Amino acid sequence: MTTAERTEAERGTGPADDLTPLAVPAARAAGCPFDPAPGVERARREEPVTRATLWDGSTCWLVTRHEDVRAVLGDPRFSAEAARPGFPFLTAGGRVLATSKPTFIRQDDPEHARLRRMLTADFMVKKVEAMRPEVQRLADDLLDRMTAGRDAADLVAEFALPLPSLVICLLLGVPYDDHAFFQERSRLLLSLRSTPEEVRTAQDDLHHYLCGLAEAKRREPDDGIVSRLVARGELDDEEVSSMGRLLLIAGHETTANMTALSTLALLRNPAQLERLRAEPSLIKGAVEELLRYLTIVHNGLPRVATEDVTLGGRTIRAGEGVLCTLNSANRDEDVFPGGDALDVGRDARRHVAFGFGVHQCLGQPLARVELQIAVETLLRRLPGLRLDIPFEDVPFRHDMGIYGVHALPVAW
Amino acid sequence: MRVHVDQEKCCGAGSCVLSAPEVFDQREEDGIVVLLDAEPPAGLHDAVHEAVAICPAAAISVEQVERVERV
Ligand code: SF4
Fold it and tell me: Closest Cα partner for A331 from A48, A110, A115, A15?
C-alpha cells in the first residue's frame, strides 16, 4: 500500500513529524525540463500534503494535488498577506519585498477586492477581445522585422518578449522606449538569485519611475490605466506606483515566457505541432493545454493559515505557511489523465496555471488573446521553424520565479 | 436549471464568459459577472457546469429546478 492509499486516520493529523521535508524551490530535472521537479511529483503521488524546507531553514506545508491546491487557494482561512508571521518566502529577496507596502496580490479581502476592482474592467473578456486586431498587427510587425533578410534569430528577444511588453505598455500608458529599464528591473525582482540589496534597488527604481509617470499623467492625462488610476483620486501615488509595477512586471514576464516555452514544447512534440498547424481552430484549446502542461509559476503560491484547517488528512495549524504547487496540480492524473503528455486536443480548462481563488490572475483574458495570436501567427508564418541549438543547450530559467527560457535561438 | 451568481464574491477574471458567453457577461464598469440567462436551455447546461467548476471565486451556483419541483 502506498502512503497515499492509507486512510486519513492512519496518516494522522499531527504536526507531521513523520514527513521528510522537501527542499524548495526544488530544481526541475535537467533531462525533462517541462516537468515539475521530481520531488514535487513524488510528493503528489505519495504524500500530497507534505512538508517543505525553505532557503532560510524554516519549514512550511507543500500542497501538490489539484483538489487540495484549489481548496487552499479558494479558502479565505488561508491568507495572502505577506506581513503575517509564518508566511513562507521563497527567497531572501522575497522577504525584502514584503517589507514595503503590498500590492493587492499580497492583501486579503476586502482591501484586495477594493483595489483589484479598479482594474478588472480593463482586462475583461470583451475589452481584450476587442484588442485582437491591434495585437495581431504588433505580432505581424515583429515577425516582419525578425525575418527580414535573415533565417535565424533569438525568439525571446525579437518576438516573445516585445509582444506582451508592447501591449502592456500601451494599456498602462507607459512609454515602450523605456523597456530596457523595466525589463532589467523586472528580471532582478524575479530572479531567485538576486540579493536583498539588488531587489530593494530594483524596486526603488521602478517605484520612482512610476511615481514620476503618475505625476506626469496628472498634468497630462491620457486613456492609459495609470492615468485613469490617478484620475480616480482614491489612491496615493505610492499605491498607483505599486499597481503599475505589478501590471508591468506581470505583463512582461509571464506571456513572454509562455510564448517561448510553448514554441519549444511544440517543437519537441512534432506530432502535436503538426496537428495544430493542420487544424488552426484548435488554437484556443491548445493554449489552455500549453498553460496546463508548462505552468510557468514553478515554485508554488504562498499562503498562511489563519485558523487550523484539515487538508489531505493533515492538520495545518493557524500561523503555518503553505505553498501550493500549481505545476504538480496541473499534472494530477485524477483531473488530467495522461497529464504528463502534451495533447493539444485535450480539454484542459480546469488547469490552475493562473492560480485559483479570488487572487486568480487578473490579466488572464489578455494573456489568452496574446498567446493565441502569438502561437498561431508563428506557426502559420514560419512553416520551417526549428530550434537552432541543441536542446541540451537551451538556457532554461531554473533560477527565476517565472519559468521559461532566457533565450530561444530558432531558424526557419 | 436555475443559475445564481454572487457579484460580491466575483473577482472578475472572466472564465465564465469564456465557457458560456450566452449565459454570463461582465459589467462594463468593473468587469464583475452579469447573468444574462438565469434559466438556460438544456444545450447550455454542460457549459454552465464547466463555468461553475472553473470559477475561481465560487461565485456561480446552479439549482436543478426540475428535481426541486418534484420533491
Ligand atoms: S468566473 Fe467567477 S469570478 Fe470570474 S467573472 Fe465569472 S463569476 Fe466572476
Answer: A48
